[in-house]
Amino acid sequence: MKPALRWLAWGGLGLAALGLAGIVATPLLDFERMEGYFAPIYSPDGRSVIFVARRTTGIVWGSGYEHFTAPAHSFVVADEFSLRRLDLVGGQIEVLRRWPSSPLAGRHTRVYRRSIFHSASVQLDYVRGDLVYKVDLGITAIPLTEHSWIGRGWPGGGGATIEFDTWQKREFGSGGLGEAVLHDGREVMALRGRAGFPAALVVHHQESGAVRVLLANTEYAGLYPNGVTSEDLRELARRPQIERGRLMRRTRDDLMARFRAETPNENEAALRAVKEMRRLGLYPKVTTLVARLLDAHTARALAATDIPLYDIAEAEMRSGLFPDIERALAEPGTAVERDIGAYVMHQDYANSALLNRYLGAGGERFLVRHAGRTYEIVIERP
């Protein structure tokens, strides 16, 4: 056997042996007590942190190593969620709401150990000044995942706040990016833990870089023996997205106020605001085209090159086949959004097929002769 192949073979056997050793070392029967802290946000005055705690106890047996063995077994004795408030000065924890045991309690399921008690998704936020919350529990039941939720919000998309204090047998749906994780230069986060149970609540101060551990479970020290690293924080930080969202909203509101003062047409003001947001890099840029009216000498010179020239008759232009080109010709020098994919084909005209072929191959410059004038069209892609 060649040396390289020999090393690969021994390496594969070594990995298999390590995997087997881990499986053999797995206890046949575990009694698990797990606790996790989810979705922390600040209270409006910034003096406390509100979060959801999950406490689960159960019996686990079987290896349950994904890609190596069949799923493990688990029987959940208790699975409790509660809404809590942690005082940032004294450290006291107050239970605001305790919900009934989840639908997982009393059930035997089979699942891999990395999510042995299935997955919980929690959202806390303030909407119109009101605290809303939702706990979604996904229970893997091959081939589907069962969803149950409990909480407070507007399931219908608006109207009065409704409290659901019993578990509902359906998925609630996801929320937006709440901003209450930030307060006075600080961000509160839930550190990742074992089997989907966040191991700790921490506060990160943006300017000083200081990290304060507010609350930790029994596994925190083993999972973070050297404390919380900058990489841990970078993976969890939501500040960049939140601050960018604030900047976008503030800039768009300012632009709309400015353009409304310049035109009574709301649609025109909105379109101008979108264009300016794109120019500033706050909205994704789009493909545009710019037309330049050529004098007779330049038109003849460019027509003699390999730049393609398309003669578009008045009737063809009026048929609406080239709306973006028509707008560009009407406003030479102005970037016009190319808001269509391929040009519509017409049995009486060949230009649509020719342009589609040229642009589809990456073409970025062509000539258009229309109404006795010749224009150079330049495509600008983001």
Task: Describe the structure in your own words.
There is one protein chain. This protein is α+β, with helices and mostly antiparallel strands. It has 3 domains: 21-228, no CATH class; 244-279; 288-380, no CATH class. The protein has helices at residues 3-25, 220-223, 230-236, 239-262, 266-279, 296-303, 314-318, 323-330, 351-360; strands at 29-42, 48-61, 72-87, 93-98, 108-111, 119-127, 130-141, 144-153, 162-168, 182-183, 186-191, 200-205, 211-216, 288-293, 309-311, 336-337, 365-370, 373-380. A hairpin with an 8-residue loop joins strand 11 and strand 12 (200-205). Helix 4 crosses helix 5 (266-279). The longest helix is centred in the middle third of the chain and has 24 residues, at 239-262. It is elongated, with a radius of gyration of 31 Å. The protein starts with a helix and ends with a strand.
Identify the notable features of this structure and list them briefly.
27% helix, 3 domains, 9 helices, elongated, alpha+beta
Task: Please specify the SSE layout and strand pairing.
Blueprint (H helix, E strand, L loop, with lengths): L2 H23 L3 E14 L5 E14 L10 E16 L5 E6 L9 E4 L7 E9 L2 E12 L2 E10 L8 E7 L13 E2 L2 E6 L8 E6 L5 E6 L3 H4 L6 H7 L2 H24 L3 H14 L8 E6 L2 H8 L5 E3 L2 H5 L4 H8 L5 E2 L13 H10 L4 E6 L2 E8 L2
Parallel strand pairs: 15-17
Antiparallel strand pairs: 1-2, 2-3, 3-4, 3-5, 6-7, 7-8, 8-9, 10-11, 11-12, 12-13, 14-16, 14-18, 17-18
Helix pairs in contact: 4-5
